[in-house]
Amino acid sequence: MADAFGDELFSVFEEEAAAPSGAKRARTGAAEPASKAGKRANAKSPAASPGKTKREAEVDSTEDAVFAKKVKLEDGVAEEVNLADLMPKVKVQAVETVEGCTHEVALPADEDFVGLKPRSGKAAKEYPFILDSFQREAILCVDNKQSVLVSAHTSAGKTVCAEYAIALALREKQRVIFTSPIKALSNQKYREMYEEFQDVGLMTGDVTINPTASCLVMTTEILRSMLYRGSEVMREVAWVIFDEIHYMRDSERGVVWEETIILLPDNVHYVFLSATIPNARQFAEWICHLHKQPCHVIYTDYRPTPLQHYIFPAGGDGLHLVVDENGDFREDNFNTAMQVLRDAGDLAKGDQKGRKGGTKGPSNVFKIVKMIMERNFQPVIIFSFSKKDCEAYALQMTKLDFNTDEEKKMVEEVFNNAVDCLSDEDKKLPQVEHVLPLLKRGIGIHHGGLLPILKETIEILFSEGLIKALFATETFAMGINMPARTVLFTSARKFDGKDFRWISSGEYIQMSGRAGRRGMDDRGIVILMVDEKMSPTVGKQLLKGSADPLNSAFHLTYNMVLNLLRVEEINPEYMLEKSFYQFQHYRAIPGVVEKVNKLEDQYNKIEIPNEDSVVIYYKIRQQLAKLSKEIEEYIHKPKYCLPFLQPGRLVKVKNEDDDFGWGVVVNFSKKSNVKPNSGELDPLYVVEVLLHCSKESLKNSATEAAKPAKPGEKGEMQVVPVLVHLLAAISSVRLYIPKDLRPIDNRQSVLKSIQEVQKRFPDGVPLLDPIDDMGIKDQGLKKVIQKIEAFEHRMYSHPLHNDPNLETVYKLCERKAQIAVDIKAAKRELKKARTVLQMDELKCRKRVLRRLGFATSSDVIELKGRVACEISSADELLLTEMMFNGLFNDLSAEQATALLSCFVFQENSSEMPKLTEQLAGPLRQMQECAKRIAKVSAEAKLDIDEENYLNSFRPNLMDVVHTWANGANFAHICKMTDVFEGMLFSTPPFFQEIYLCDYF
Q1: Beta strand 486-489 with 524-530: parallel, antiparallel or unpaired?
Q2: Element containing residue 62 per DSSP (H, E)
Q3: SS3 for 667?
Q4: In degrees, to the nearest 5, what angle opens at C-alpha 428 toward C-alphas 424 and 432?
């Protein structure tokens, strides 16, 4: 039956000739069928509900032949699934623990759980404070030489568990690796670990200190590289600690974590530190399945310092407590805040991108920061979602001063000591000169565009309490242990690279978790600035929602494929099959099978008398509904409908959730909408319609959209802005409307007029004819109308159309059809879960590597491939092609350096420099290489857009880097561009990797 419902039985009518002149024509109420005569009332829509309109017609033999096609119920749809072969052989057991945390362990299915043994002898490390229950449980796992995932809130004290594992490894003369996602966090952890253990080394892309140490702190990329190279260090490692493991869901770099965990040997034990994640157990199951060892999950949602969450509505004067320290959501306060926002008017509204309107945003930040200081709620971290906003907000604080004279002297001393390593010229950089006056007043800035030396200095000053207000981007919330008493969000929306959206509850939890210093504050304070209204549902989800789950971001890269081809013990197929990405799909199988079986059971229980005939009738109606939508698309075009949207025009309004029925047009306006991909302005037409609304929904108009009055409910007429595409029908009737619609009596009088019209036309309110009335001459519309006439002819001729049981059997058929669609979708989901994902993409990538000469047809890696294996900082294919094509041979070192900047620079810049021929020439050659790779990729059936691929290599900094390579000082090149100094500073280290490859 699922197949029967999915068939396109009626394609034979696609090219049918025009109906006879007496046939009825579809009208603007696309959901309603046409009438025979020009302006008389339309019959009720057969596409929308079972109609009873009679129509005399003959069914010819051709139609009989088409409808005679046998429609059979689909046999059992759930295929036999050999779950034993696919399902990871893992079991989970709860472990009894004290109140305050949960403890589970994932075990290989053939192992019995043996309780953890209490420590005998002295602890590897003693702590001067009483450990929390989750810390004691995690340390017990480490003492028993078993892997553990510790999932707890930011600042809860997860590092204690990592320190204990390091102490244990050092005591037993074993090596231990501590890995983190970013260099800044690695540097901080190195300093902390060195102070504690001394025998500690650091390995990041920029710095290597004491690489023979027993405890090595490194970025995950370095660990991955060591594993691919078969480093001797790995033979001596007993423990690997992954800090901030939830970073594995990062779309770009998260795959590095998965690769690393898969490549690590089974005899290594792990400590995973994570923010709260709802699927921590699933991750532990994957580790157990992957490395054939138990993995414990210690989870706590206990927060040592409770938080209070406030909303500050833009344009308002005060804070509104919306979530108290007990975690209770106060909806009345939330609604009050939204009402304040609404009353503040247009100045507080955001534009289409969600940015702050008018001049309220900056003054609001100033107002809140000043209030925080007056109430002694400092230090405060102010999170903004762009580097420029951070600096702009900080500069608005110039009238405020939070430091004493003594503190100013300390700031100046620390700052001068830090910048002493810079040259005299670099000390005069605008960024260096401008930041000191702010720092002396206790105001700091922290984002990726700062020079590293300034960023580290600001971190030190903040940790010492010499910065009271720190303006930072969200990267500051990642792992670096810098808590504050208060956290302020300057916006509830952010740009994620595609469009502006509400921040997720997981992002909010991560950043707000910086509020409240353990042992220092009785509570943390979180303030969310809101500049456009949100519903209580959205607000509650944001403020009290769960953390984001740890979902795999695994994807193939050429560097990964080449490295796996080079290593004998492992291949790319193995990597795909063992990935967390694949594991999550395998884990979904039982649920999908159960879903399919349940749907099949529902499907088979629905019995429809004379089912074949009912199905045919149902399909006719579905085709009519589909064609009605096509009619709507024509009448919604502004050039056709706008001339008829005069005040008083009756229109029917319907969206996906609500049917308002008939309303009256009051006015319409044209606005501009930003297209998400191009950024171009698209005209947007909004019609103001007087509609019968529920009084309850109007009470909460500050936070919720208006809802239609329920049948029989005495609602209230209200003017509601409606997008043109929500007009389900346009009537030929116009009503008189009072000039002043503010008095409720005037609005209610219009409702009476609408009801009178409906009584006068019991068969349906007459609609505008799209051809005769609206003058639409489009041939496509005429074809659609012809198809509608043909299908209506068959519908009215069908014996079921006048059957008294039509309503009942039609609903049964509709329900069965929906179940059949659900079964098909579930089967596709099941098929996807049972196959090794991305295998087709792997085949395509291998094809590209063979055609470009990186590997042989038997997957033996060539010289080109070996070079590409060494490149992980940029596009390995293009760089290798450029080297082997001799593109660099005729370039000077300065030209080569400038060209390589295209691979590094990813920031947005308003400047596109006009390049000289000595730079434009190499750029063209590089683009030709890139076009060839894009062409080969497309031929290999990879989904690639040549234009987007070429645009990913940005020449914005070529002239800047060329000038720098020719000996210009840093201060000079900073004046050549609007790019932040920190982004310029991070560019040169990348070249080292490329030059080494070129040298060899």
Answers
A1: parallel
A2: helix 61-67
A3: strand
A4: 115
- 850, burial (CB in 10 Å: exposed 0-12, middle 13-18, buried 19+): middle
Cβ-based neighbours of 941, under 8 Å, separated by 6 or more? 844, 847
Q: What is the 3-state secondary structure (H, E, C) of 897-943?
A: HHHHHHHHCCCCCCCCCCCCHHHHHHHHHHHHHHHHHHHHHHHCCCC
- Residue 884, amino acid: F
Give me the amino acid identity at 636.
Answer: H
Tokens 């997720």 found at: 504
Q: What is the largest CA-CA distance in the chain?
A: 100
**pLDDT tens, 80-118?**
445 555 566 888 888 887 777 889 999 988 888 888 888
The encoded tokens of residue 802 equal 């006048």
Which amino acid is it at 497?
A: G
Q: Rounded to an integer, what distance in angstroms lies between the CA atom of residue 354 and that of residue 348?
A: 11
Q: Which CATH superfamily is domain 101-301 in?
A: P-loop containing nucleotide triphosphate hydrolases (3.40.50.300)
Strand order in the sheet with 443-446: 320-323, 307-313, 524-530, 486-489, 380-383, 469-472, 443-446
Cβ contacts of 177 within 8 Å, gap of 6 or more: 215, 216, 217, 218, 223, 237, 239, 240, 241
Between the ranges 10-19, 488-497, 903-912, where is the mean pLDDT highest?
488-497
Residue closest to 489 by CA, chosen among 480, 499, 476: 476
CA atoms of 339 and 316, how far apart (whole Å)? 10
Using the structure block, give the residue that is written with the tokens 């929906």: 818
% residues pLDDT > 90 (the chain):
11
Contacts of 304 (CB under 8 A, 6+ apart): 132, 155, 156, 157, 516, 518, 519
Mean pLDDT of the chain: 78
- Host H or E run for residue 500: strand 500-502
**Tokens read off for 341:** 């926002």
* 857-999 is classed CATH 1.10.3380.30: yes
Sort residue 479 into left (φ over 0), alpha (ψ -120 to 50) or beta.
left
> Which residues, at least 6 apart from 554, have a Cβ–Cβ distance to it below 8 Å?
254, 255, 258, 579, 580, 581, 582, 838
Q: Please, which contacts does 219-223 make with residues 24 or more away whose CB atoms are closer than 8 Å?
A: 219/179, 219/180, 219/181, 219/182, 219/183, 219/186, 220/179, 220/180, 220/181, 220/253, 220/256, 220/257, 220/260, 221/253, 221/256, 221/872, 222/179, 223/177, 223/179, 223/260
Quick: pLDDT tens for 547-601: 888 888 888 888 888 988 888 777 888 888 888 888 888 887 788 888 888 998 9
Helix (H) or strand (E) holding 381: strand 380-383
Q: Given a cut of 80, is residue 495 above it in pLDDT?
A: no
Nearest to 158 by CA among 182, 183, 180, 134: 134
Q: Judge: domain 350-531, CATH 3.40.50.150.
A: no
Q: What are phi and psi of 455, to 5 degrees?
A: -60, -45
Residue 922: alpha-carbon gap to chain centroid: 37
Q: How is the chain split into domains, by residue range?
A: 101-301, 350-531, 857-999
Length of the chain: 1000
- 862-to-848, 867, 950 alpha-carbon distances in Å: 13, 9, 26
Q: How confident is the model at residue 288 (pLDDT cuts 50, 70, 90)?
A: very high
Exposure of 353 by Cβ count < 10 A (0-12 exposed, 13-18 middle, 19+ buried)? exposed
How many CB atoms lie under 10 A from the CB of residue 622? 16
Distance CA 244, CA 185 (A): 10
Residue 541 or 860, more confident = 860
d(CA 47, CA 27): 13
- Domains 101-301 and 857-999 are alike in CATH topology: no
Cα distance from N-terminal residue to C-terminal residue, the chain: 65
Residues facing residue 203 across a β-bridge = 208, 218
Q: How far apart are CA 728 and CA 735, in angstroms?
A: 18
Q: Tokens 């649920």 appear where?
A: 591
Q: How far apart are CA 985 and CA 814, in angstroms?
A: 64
Cα–Cα distance measured from residue 791 to residue 411, given in angstroms and rounded to the nearest whole number: 81
